[in-house]
Write a structure and sequence with these properties.
By secondary structure, the protein is mainly alpha-helical. Helices cover 54% and strands 0% of the residues. It has one domain.
């Protein structure tokens, strides 16, 4: 996932540890998913991720 990031600082393992990278990415998603006024749409091209997200909605 790190390689897909467009921020050169976050891609660099010597500047940002794996632990910090994970924390930063999770925070970005949390902010984006909680900013919706009425709803948020999540689309996943990965079938396993899509199934996992659907399972969370069934709870």
């Amino acid at each position: 996932m790190r390689e897909g990031n467009r921020d050169p600082v976050l891609r660099n393992r010597t500047k940002v540890s794996d632990r910090d990278f994970d924390r930063l990415v999770r925070n970005v998603y949390k902010v984006l998913l909680t900013r919706g006024m009425r709803s948020a749409w999540i689309y996943s091209t990965d079938p396993q991720t899509r199934d996992f997200l659907r399972s969370l909605l069934r709870r």
